[in-house]
Amino acid sequence: MTPLQAADADARDTPRPDVLAPAPWTAVGADADGVRVTAVRTFLTGPQGCPYVVTRVETNQPGLYGLGDASDPQRPLATRTLIDEYLGPLLVGRDPADIEDLHRLLLNSGYWRGGSIEHNALASLDLALWDLKGKVAGLPVHQLLGGRAREHADAYTHVDGADAAEVAEKVLEAAGRGYRHVRVQVAVPGRDTYGTAPRDAAEAARRRARTDRWDTLAYLRHVPGILADVRDRVGPDVELLHDAHERMTPAEARQLVRAVEDAGLYFLEDALAPEDAAHFPELRAAGTTPLAVGELYHDPRAYLPLLAGRSIDFARIRIPTLGGLTPARKLVAVCEMFGVRTAPHGPGDVTPVGMAANMALNISSPAFGVQEAATFRDATLEVFPGAPVPAGGHLLASEAPGLGVDFDERAARRYPVGAPLEHDRWALLRATDGSAHRA
Ligand code: MG
Questions:
Q1: What does the pLDDT read at residue 261?
Q2: Under a CB-based contact definition with an 8 Å cutoff, are residues 82 and 115 in contact?
Q3: How far is the CA of 371 from the centre of ligand 1 (A)?
Q4: Distance 268 CA to ligand 1 centre (A)
Q5: Which of 226, 299, 305, 434 has the fewest CB atoms in 10 Å of its CB?
Q6: Which among 124, 140, 156 is the end of a domain?
Q7: How far is the CA of 358 from the centre of ligand 1 (A)?
Q8: Which residues form the domain of 287?
Q9: Is 194 a catalytic residue?
Q10: Which of 66, 73, 50 is nearest to 124 (CA)?
């Protein structure tokens, strides 16, 4: 008998009580004294000026609950309804510990499953389950994900302006506050431009009515030169980022990649819309500027061709849209395998609960690159005690159990969501010929 055959024989003769015994989750499910979900509640609040949908998963243990973020600023009521009427009731009575099982249960609960709204709703419950798991364990979520890979997460802030002098001044001011990474957006005179603040009351009124139009030709003629000028003015010691916000055709995007070479960007974001993602290899071939995309993706598998093709450098990840930490942590691990860094989405429409979920991944993943970090208003900090706040250009992960952020329901009631909702304004952008355009 060879050693291999001997090993086989031993294996066949060895009793396998671990296989014959009930699966652990069955045993836990029979424990009437265990933690059980008793209610799922949602809250709509607007302390940041945009609609936040917050989910609270409550349990039969006094004071033990988990918090989630279901914020979709264009579809808050639809997302909330999905939780209240369909997904939330499926959790009631269940053990919140089995996150993988529950995530799959919720994902498969609708035959025509999927989509960004469905995934936002699913994500809020998923985050709440991770928050609960951390609280039960007495550990921050990043410890549940493997522990620390870094001491802090570099953050990037946003600046904008009408010309290179104004933008450069703001970049240097941000650098003076400790930011190594700054996103720069440049206003195109007389045209709608993504990511820039109105210069005066008249422009603010035009923005609300969306009477200024999007003009790709003017953008391509104006913005790359300003970005190069900003680079000259601020020097090499600060990373500059720019977001094109998927407003161009594939051919126009290739022109942009060539035109921004002199700016030495850290990354160019969303040069292409998700619908045009198959053009990324030729965009990559058009220049050397690192490319970032992904905040609109709700299916983690949508990243796979871009990762396997080495067509992007940064994966933008919006945890609420992606369906929660459960799929996001797997995506981040795949990014690590392919040498692509992560740059999680974090403007003001991601709640502090969502930002805390970002930080759990950022601190624990070797693939992390940079975190977009909004400036939370005082009202938001009042509603969400423990909110992650950048200091010195970076964010620290909370060491509190769970996600480390709480939700003050009474304070939230003081900040009702105003009208009109964001989608009213979002839908009005038009191109120079009057056709409807992606905003
Ligand atoms: Mg963006």
A1: 97
A2: no
A3: 12
A4: 10
A5: 434
A6: 140
A7: 16
A8: 144-400
A9: yes
A10: 66
Q: Tell me the CA–centroid distance for residue 415 and ligand 1, in Å.
A: 26
In this structure, what token pair is assigned to residue 190?
């007389």
Q: For residue 14, name the pLDDT band (cuts at 50, 70, 90).
A: very low
Q: What is the mean pLDDT of residues 62-86?
A: 95
CATH number at residue 69: 3.30.390.10
Distance 398 CA to ligand 1 centre (A): 25
What burial class does residue 110 get, using C-beta atoms within 10 Å of its C-beta: 0-12 exposed, 13-18 middle, 19+ buried?
middle
Give rounded-to-5 percent helix, strand, coil for the chain.
45, 15, 40
288, 251: one domain: yes
Q: Which one has a higher pLDDT value, 62 or 16?
A: 62
Question: Which one is catalytic: 52, 156, 194, 266?
Answer: 194
| Whether 197 and 331 share a structural domain | yes
| Cα 245 to averaged position of ligand 1 atoms, centre (Å) | 6
Asked if 106 and 157 sit in the same domain, the reply is no
Does 406 map to a domain?
Answer: no
User: Which of the following is catalytic: 103, 142, 181, 245?
Assistant: 245
Looking at the structure, do residues 125 and 223 belong to the same domain, yes or no? no
pLDDT-derived band at 422, boundaries 50, 70, 90:
low
Q: Of 392, 335, 401, nearest to 369 (Cα)?
A: 335
Interior angle at CA 175, CA 174 and CA 178, nearest 5: 95
Continuous H helices in 270-351:
280-285, 304-308, 319-322, 325-338
Distance CA 48, CA 161 (A): 22
Question: Residues 227-264: pLDDT tens digits?
Answer: 999 999 999 999 999 999 999 999 999 999 999 999 99
Q: Mean of the pLDDT values across residues 154-167?
A: 97
Q: Is residue 52 part of a domain?
A: yes
Pairing of strands 153-161, 371-372: parallel
Tell me, yes or no, if 245 is annotated catalytic.
yes
pLDDT in tens, 187-215: 999 899 999 988 889 888 888 888 899 99
- Cα 69 to middle of ligand 1, angstroms: 19
Spacing, Cα 339 to ligand 1 middle (Å): 21
Contact 379, 48 (CB under 8 A): yes
Q: Is 253 within the bounds of a domain? A: yes
